[in-house]
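Project outcomes to date are best conveyed with an example. Our students and postdoctoral researchers have been running inverse folding experiments weekly, and each run begins with a structure described purely in tokens. The record below, which covers 387 residues, was selected by the lab manager from last quarter's runs and is presented without edits.
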């Protein structure tokens, strides 16, 4: 089983990042299937209580995938590197190792690839190949490319009644991008072709009646299947134009907090350039410095919010200032609520007095229940405001 396993956010992000990492390392890289409800339950059984949905879901998916691989080829093999990306916390790798050990699976070296030099040093050692700053920047660019593909697809679905055809275009584009990035070629021509294909397939329908912006945990908002992106598809089916969060925005927030101003600038520039090539109509992502200013104006400069609360409240305040949506939905995985509750409380208070409306949703593998109650009501109220 001499391969590198990659997981992080969504099928689109994972496939593009895996291809980029394969091109950088020369190793065989494959993405772990996105977690489902069964994986979430398995992860919760293997990890101590209190871990959020992304960690438990990815842990369960990793365990399931390694078991499947070893069932096919049970022969002893070198350790399998497992890389988790998208702004992972430095200590997260040990949490996945705990889950693997409790499942009776050894021989998997886990690297949580964050913005700190230590994680890249660990990745270089684990993968057996030097990863320099240029490698990190290529990974950032790959994340930006996946972000703009996801956002451009959301914009197209808001104007089309032929969702299956659009999904097929997205799938083919991701495959082409994966090949391109593996070979180290420029992705802009493929992004431009993606934009042309979407415009050519556009089927007019009634204009979206309400604009919804998703903020908060990028994994919860973007991961495919019942743990997250069903929310996006449900909103679109109800006639909303959805702006999904960008993983790039989360990376820039982490880089900003770490004082890596050059990384912030590079990530934002990469996102803007790729969005232009892809024809994204709303290419803006939040500026961490602007978020700091807006939160300080609202809560006072002496108040230091946890990162989850800071991002949720800051996303709402930026949306209000730029009039970018009628409803802001802050999505977070269960067990993140202590972090986000403060920011959500402030945003809820502001939303009572002015638009846009705000809703905080903590998901725990219960998307359908949340949709049928709180989200349905919030969407109807926002639609009434926009009318």
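After processing, the design step wrote out the following sequence:
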């Amino acid at each position: 089983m001499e391969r590198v396993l990659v997981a992080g956010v969504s099928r689109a992000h994972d496939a593009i990042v895996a291809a980029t990492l394969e091109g950088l390392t020369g190793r065989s890289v494959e993405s772990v299937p996105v977690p489902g409800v069964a994986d979430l339950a398995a992860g919760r059984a293997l990890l101590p209580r209190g871990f959020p949905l992304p960690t438990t879901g990815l842990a369960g998916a990793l365990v399931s995938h390694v078991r499947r691989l070893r069932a096919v080829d049970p022969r002893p093999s070198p350790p399998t590197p497992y890389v988790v990306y998208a702004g992972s916390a430095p200590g997260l790798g040990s949490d996945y190792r705990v889950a693997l050990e409790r499942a009776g699976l050894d021989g998997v070296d886990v690297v949580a690839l964050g913005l700190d030099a230590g994680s890249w040093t660990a990745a270089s050692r684990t993968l057996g190949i030097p990863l320099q700053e240029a490698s990190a920047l290529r990974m950032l660019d790959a994340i930006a490319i996946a972000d703009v593909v996801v956002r451009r697809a959301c914009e197209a679905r808001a104007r089309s009644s032929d969702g299956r055809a659009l999904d097929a275009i997205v799938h083919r584009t991701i495959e082409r991008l994966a090949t391109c990035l593996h070979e180290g070629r420029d992705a802009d021509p493929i992004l431009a072709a993606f934009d042309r294909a979407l415009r050519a397939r556009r089927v007019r329908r009634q204009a979206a009646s309400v604009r919804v912006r998703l903020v908060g945990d990028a994994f919860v908002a973007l991961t495919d299947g019942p743990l997250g992106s069903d929310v996006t598809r449900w909103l679109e089916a109800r006639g909303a134009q959805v702006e999904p969060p960008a993983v790039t925005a989360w990376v820039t927030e982490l880089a900003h907090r770490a004082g890596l101003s050059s990384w912030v600038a590079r990530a934002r520039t990469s996102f803007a350039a790729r969005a232009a090539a892809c024809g994204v109509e709303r290419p803006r992502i939040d500026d961490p410095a602007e978020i700091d200013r807006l939160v300080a104006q609202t809560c006072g400069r002496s108040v230091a919010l946890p990162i989850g609360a800071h991002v949720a409240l800051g996303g709402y305040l930026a949306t209000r200032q730029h009039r970018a949506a009628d409803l802001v939905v802050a999505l977070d995985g269960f067990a993140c609520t202590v972090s986000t509750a403060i920011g959500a409380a402030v945003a809820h208070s502001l939303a009572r007095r002015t638009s846009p409306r705000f809703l905080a949703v903590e998901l725990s593998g219960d998307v359908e229940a949340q949709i049928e109650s709180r989200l349905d009501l919030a969407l109807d109220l926002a639609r009434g405001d926009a009318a």
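Residues 4-131 form a domain with the Rossmann fold fold (CATH 3.40.50). DSSP finds 16 helices and eight strands in the chain. The training component of this project remains on track.
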